Amino acid sequence: MGPMVGEESVQEGAAPEATWAGAGRARIELRDVHKSFGPKHVLRGLDLTVRDGDSLVILGGSGTGKSVLVQHLIGLMRPDRGSVLVDGEDLAALSSAELTTLRQRFGMSFQEGALFDSLTVFDNVGFLLERLGTMTRAEIRDRVFECLELVRLEGTAQRLPSELSGGMRRRVGFARAIAHKPEILLFDEPNTGLDPVTSAVIDELIIRMREKLHSTTVTITHDLRSAFTIATRLVLLHQGQIAAEGTPEEMQASEDGRVQQFLSGEAHGPLTDDEEAEREARRE
Question: Which CATH entry fits the domain spanning 23-105+183-269: 3.30.200.20, 1.10.10.10, 3.60.10.10, 3.40.50.300?
Fold first, then answer.
């Protein structure tokens, strides 16, 4: 095993413009989406539009359905009722082959990076490119090194994931997510388990990738500092619906008690009152 590689600094990127991205065309639309697992109704008539150029951050408490929502965006789950459209195409109407092709428009970075432990950094980043079979080995090599440079991981191509720090493994996951030049990037809890400095590095990279690739991004996070750093728009998910949405400035100024409780982290308020009322209703 080689030496553990420490975190490297990333050049500070400009914060995303805090303007409403409503002028862009709709890339993803969820219309009256319902999803249940047994008696648990997770999504309850959810409506959401992600527009071209958005950096959308989805906020919400644990168990509110954020990951379920994201899995609907790429067709890993299908709604019990309602529809999910990507660039105007209803995912429910697509064949398995068509859905596989459509997913190539997405790049997804999972929690903890989800890397293949037995593969080098180079092979992890180039994995999908090899599978797609549309590039020569020389083209794959150039693209892998281009992606590693973008996430500031030059010189790590032959290392194994076990030789990298946690933050660097996340960055390898980012490089893999962008290798096939997707138009829409999905980030699932990119800062979980990271120290504040490394978390700030990850935020700068998300902004940098969005600007360099001109991509639309959707991020799930519990980290409010991160959310307000990377977002052009935020939504608060509560009881299976969008409880509030707006720019960072609009959310911070919101008088909605649910938004205020979530941002302040108070134990008591409308969010927890709603949850308690729902538990009581189930007991009756």
Answer: 3.40.50.300
